[in-house]
Write a structure and sequence with these properties.
The complex is a heterodimer of chains A (249) and B (430). With 249 residues, chain A is α/β, with parallel strands linked by helices. In chain A, the strands form three sheets. Chain A has a six-stranded mixed beta sheet with strand order 6-9-10-3-11-12, sandwiched between helices. In chain A, strands 2-1-4-5 form a four-stranded antiparallel beta sheet, with helices on one face. A two-stranded antiparallel sheet of chain A has the order 7-8. Chain A is built from nine helices and twelve strands. In chain A, a hairpin with a 2-residue loop joins strand 1 (4-13) and strand 2. Helix content of chain A is 37%, strand content 28%. Chain A has one domain: P-loop containing nucleotide triphosphate hydrolases (Rossmann fold, 3-Layer(aba) Sandwich). Chain B has 430 residues and is of the alpha/beta class. Chain B has one domain (32-429). In chain B, a hairpin with a 2-residue loop joins strand 1 and strand 2 (66-69). Chain B is globular. Chain B starts with a helix and ends in a 33-residue tail after the last helix. The chains are: A alpha/beta (249), B alpha/beta (430). Chain A binds chain B through residues 50-54, 73-75, 78-79, 83-84, 86, 89-90, 92-96, 99-104, 106-108, 111, 116, 141-144, 160, 164, and chain B through 347-350, 352-361, 363-364, 367-368, 370-372, 374-375, 423-430. The structure holds adenosine-5'-triphosphate (ATP) and magnesium ion. Residues 13-14, 16, 18, 36, 38-44, 87 of chain A line the site of adenosine-5'-triphosphate.
Chain lengths: 249, 430
């Protein structure tokens, strides 16, 4: 059974329909890449899977670990292992990353019936994961994303992912705005997570990232539907030929 | 006697109904005809000293208007007694201070002047730093509705410094009306840190008036935290009469039900090179009503002034409301000034971000609200006080503080209320 199975998903913002029948199956152990022109619904799909109430689902289903999760609250989906790396991470003045992550890690542990981490256990975990993204100590004590550069925000998303060790990670343009070094770091973070029991969806505009994170499948989301799926070579074709040819499909 | 005073208040309210500074103020709901002035018979025991864990402080209390002291010896040279005592023992010193600082002549200050039973007189000599904070408690603990008037005088000698924690609390659910005036004279190079904690029951009204006069290079940091109270008006007037002064004037109000909290701040820049910075933040729930009325006056000669004024509010319901009036009045060109006010709700995308990491909606809300409050709490330099207030704010945000119905004074560890149980660590970012 697939880890994630999306059937005929329709979703809208206000009365504007954005997703118009998405179908997608993802097995544990796989990495899928979603590409597609701007404004065609990639972030919308990610948001709907994570449970952002900004979007209204009008039809279809999202089956995760064998359960339809569309009625499940956002925090419960997260506790079930769904992680969204935001295209635009939100700035939260006054909440330090340390406190934010400690709260999140311990709530997730509680959900799974585990004892909360003690202060020192938590700090140890944090040190370990900070290394994964080569994060400076200084960043971890600052307010969440406040005044972070674009690249720092993206690294912070990968750091959080590493801390929470999700089952299904959706990374929405985590590579945008990254320099080559940061790109390598982010890719290392993702590959670090890659295991046989979890799956990753990488939303990107650039073939470049896929040199580091080699996907099992590439999908093209166009006008609210997945119009083309294929092996990683599809990304190369898109890079060369753009999206024009899709219109003839 | 009391009836005469009540009538004076009603007359004052009537006379001031068109006055910009006072027209929002309405104590009528709390000023009931059954109110009485405290007598010797109302001298109640102080149940506890509102200890703040880990904080050594010199504590002074007025319980139903009657003076108590915890008898700790103060640093030599510091004068700490009642104003009545000062009148007898230090008439010259008191006279000198009162010549330096006065009220703004508002009718409520006048009513206080003619009816004040007593107050604290605190004098710090030149060059002295008072190490332990002085905690000044005003507590109502009576089965009658008391009408209380205290008038405190604080005088800082040149280059001296003092931390004053002023707590206004009610001990029972009985209503009261308290009109307090604090006059502070900050001479050259002195520094006052003034913390105001207000945790009163819903039937109580408090008019807390503070008048500060500052001489050359004096500095003031005032942080007022309103956690509960039926009807509170903080009336702050700061006059920077000489060069080089700095004023930090901040406030936080967390109000719900039918509560009212009104903060008025008037900062008068009379001399060059002075700074003032105001940050007032409020969270309003249910049908609570907040007012921020800030007036910064930069006079003709007050060149190189820096003045910043901000008021930020979060409304949790659509019945809660706030009137925010930041106002800069500037009479010279050589200034850096800004003012702003916001009234909004919690940011839904920030909530989504927190919940997407597995944080429950309740904790996500509390985290965001606490972060909002923390920006004001950070101005408190007394660590134990900041931690204590941080806990109380968390309790308040979780709706636990006002639930302690037996004791409006939930700030005390000794009242039997359980300390805040908080599974998530919300300590401030530094
Ligand atoms: N709050 C909103 N109100 C109205 N339309 C919106 C809103 N948010 C997004 N949209 C629209 O929904 C459509 C899909 O947006 P989405 O963010 O899913 O695109 P995307 O494929 O992620 O694009 P990009 O590659 O630029 O990130 C766009 O046309 C966008 O303008
Ligand atoms: Mg997008």
């Amino acid at each position: 059974m697939a880890l994630l199975s999306i059937r005929n998903l329709h979703a809208s913002i206000g009365d504007k329909e954005i997703l118009r029948g998405v179908n997608l199956d993802i097995e544990a152990g796989e990495v899928h890449s979603i590409m597609g022109p701007n404004g065609n619904g990639k972030s919308t799909l990610a948001g709907v899977i994570a449970g952002n109430e900004k979007y209204t689902v009008t039809d279809g289903e999202v089956i995760y670990k064998g359960r339809d999760i569309l009625a499940m609250p956002v925090d419960q989906r997260a506790n079930e292992g769904i992680f969204l790396g935001f295209q635009y991470p939100v700035e939260i003045p006054g909440v330090s990353i340390t406190n934010f992550m400690r709260t999140a890690v311990n709530e997730q542990r509680k959900y799974r019936g585990l004892d909360p981490l003690t202060g020192s256990q938590f700090l140890k975990l944090m040190e370990e994961k900070k290394k994964v993204v080569e994060m400076t100590a200084n960043l971890a004590n600052r307010s969440v994303n406040e005044g972070f550069s674009g690249g720092e925000k993206k690294k912070n998303e990968i750091f959080q992912m590493a801390m929470l060790d999700p089952t299904l990670a959706i990374l929405d343009e985590t590579d945008s705005g990254l320099d080559i070094d940061a790109l390598r770091i982010v890719a290392t973070g993702v590959n670090h997570l890659r295991r046989s029991d979890n799956a990753i969806i990488v939303i990107t505009h650039y073939q470049r990232l896929l040199d580091y994170i080699v996907p099992d499948f590439v999908h093209v989301l166009y006008e609210g539907r997945i119009v083309k799926s294929g092996p990683k070579e599809l990304a190369l074709k898109l890079e060369k030929e753009g999206y024009e040819w899709l219109k003839e499909l | 006697m009391a009836q005469g005073i009540i009538n004076q208040y009603r007359q004052a309210a009537h006379d001031l109904r068109k006055n910009e500074v006072w027209r929002n103020v309405d104590f009528a709901p709390q000023l009931t005809d059954d109110m009485v002035l405290p007598t010797a018979a109302d001298d109640a025991q102080l149940q506890f000293w509102c200890n703040i864990q880990g904080l050594e402080a010199h504590r002074i209390a007025f319980v139903n208007g009657a003076f108590k002291s915890d008898e700790q010896s103060e640093q030599s040279g510091v004068v700490c007694c009642t104003v009545g005592e000062a009148r007898r023992s230090y008439p010259e010193l008191l006279g000198k201070v009162l010549a330096e600082v006065g009220t703004d002549g508002n009718p409520y200050a006048d009513i206080n002047g003619s009816n004040a039973t007593d107050g604290l007189f605190l004098y710090v000599p030149d060059g002295m730093t008072v190490h332990q904070p002085v905690q000044l408690l005003s507590i109502a603990n009576s089965d009658k509705s008391l009408l209380l008037h205290l008038r405190h005088v604080v005088a800082l000698g040149r280059g001296s410094s003092l931390k004053l924690i002023q707590c206004d609390d009610s001990y029972t659910q009985q209503g009261a009306f308290s009109n307090n005036v604090l006059l502070a004279s900050l001479t050259e190079g002195s520094r006052l840190e003034h913390y105001k904690m207000q945790n009163l029951n819903d039937a109580t009204a408090l008019l807390n008036q503070t008048f500060v006069s500052m001489q050359r290079d004096a500095s003031l940091c005032s942080v007022g935290i309103t956690l509960n109270g039926g009807n509170i008006r903080n009336h702050n007037v700061v006059r920077m009469t000489h060069e080089g002064c700095s004023t930090e004037m901040h406030g936080l109000y967390l109000i719900d039900r039918q509560q009212r909290c009104d903060n008025y701040v008037f900062v008068d820049h009379l001399a060059p090179n002075c700074k003032s910075h105001e940050l007032y933040k409020g969270i309003l729930d249910d049908s609570a009503h907040g007012v921020f009325n800030g007036h910064v006056l930069v006079r003709d000669g007050a060149t190189k002034t820096e003045a910043y004024q901000a008021n930020r509010n979060i409304l949790l319901t659509d019945k809660a409301f706030v009137q925010s009036k930041p106002f800069l009045e500037i009479y010279n060109d050589d200034v850096k000034c800004s003012h702003g006010s916001t009234i909004g709700q919690l940011d839904n995308q920030a909530l989504f971000y927190l919940m997407q990491r597995g944080i429950s909606p309740r904790n996500a809300r509390t985290l965001l609200l606490y972060a909002f409050c923390d920006e004001v709490l950070r101005y408190i330099t007394v660590d134990q006080l900041r931690d204590k207030l941080g806990d109380m704010v968390k309790k308040r945000l979780h709706g636990e503080l006002s639930a302690c119905l037996d004791c409006a004074l939930s700030c005390s560890n000794t009242c039997g209320c359980t300390p805040p149980e908080f599974k998530i660590d919300l300590s401030s970012t530094k």
